[in-house]
Amino acid sequence: MMLKTARPFSFVKSKIWEFFKKAYIKIYANRKYPFQRYLRKSRSRTEVRNLLFFQSIGISIPRIVGWGQRRNAIGQIIQEFIITDAIPDSLTLDQYVRRKSLSRLQAARLARTLGLWLRSMHTNNFYHKDFHWRNILIRCKEQKLVISLIDCPRGNFHYSTMRSRYLRLKDCVILDKYANVLVDDVARSVFLQAYLDASRGSSSYKKWSQRIPAYRLARFDQKKGRTKVKPLNH
């Protein structure tokens, strides 16, 4: 009978490294408000639900490999994680713009895609609440820019009209925090037209083109303690 020889450690180590190059493991730290994890749903479960929702409405996400959670004897979540495929050669939108820059045409196309995606979310009564540039991955595939969404543990469905109005504006403003510094007004206009499904001359466009900068100025630009976006030459 032939005995199988043990794999050398170097082989095992290389396979482990190969796995981590192909997968992204996100571990949730429940240290700040530990008792919330007893009273609320787990963030890993919520994020998986949100990512699958994005996929169902045509928004690109990394493939979910698995997720899990562990509770203690009193039902408090003490460990949780989510594993997704890594997206090779990708950068966050902020990193990509700073390192590689975008042409005006590329910026307009990306802005239109993000506008359509956000419109689709809000049409389905879903609100992201953390739609930052760091949660948007971009890579070049076959000479085309491809974007994907990651990280959405805070998003949720809301059906209250008053709450929805505020969250619609908030999602747009969070995107505009970086956009008003790193891209031109043409791309921002393309985003808003795609989001509203309206022309620049429409009343809705004029109203939102005033509301977004006003709220951004009050929420991010002037509020003490808020990190300001560095311009491209920094």
CA-based gyration radius: 21 Å
**Oligomeric state of the chains?**
single chain
Write down the CATH class of the largest domain.
Mainly Alpha
Major sheet: arrangement of strands:
1-3-2
Q: Write down the domain tally.
A: 2
H/I helix tally: 8
**Mean pLDDT across all amino acids:** 85
Q: Can you say what the CATH homologous superfamily of the largest domain is?
A: Transferase(Phosphotransferase) domain 1
- CATH topology of the largest domain, what is it called? Transferase(Phosphotransferase), domain 1
Estimated share of beta-strand residues: 15-25%
Counted beta strands: 8
Topology:
Blueprint: H1 9-22, E1 23-27, H2 36-39, H3 43-56, E2 64-71, E3 77-85, E4 91-92, H4 93-99, H5 104-123, E5 126-127, E6 136-141, E7 144-149, E8 156-157, H6 161-182, H7 185-196, H8 203-221
Antiparallel strand pairs: 1-3, 2-3, 4-6, 5-8, 6-7
Describe this structure in words.
The chain is of the alpha+beta class and 234 residues long. The protein folds into two domains: 23-85; 91-221, Orthogonal Bundle (Transferase(Phosphotransferase), domain 1), CATH 1.10.510.10. The protein has eight helices and eight strands, in the order αβααβββααββββααα. The strands form three sheets. A three-stranded antiparallel β-sheet has the order 1-3-2. The protein has a three-stranded antiparallel β-sheet with strand order 4-6-7. β6 and β7 form a beta hairpin. α5 runs parallel beside α7 and α6 (161-182) packs across α8. The N and C termini lie far apart (67 Å).
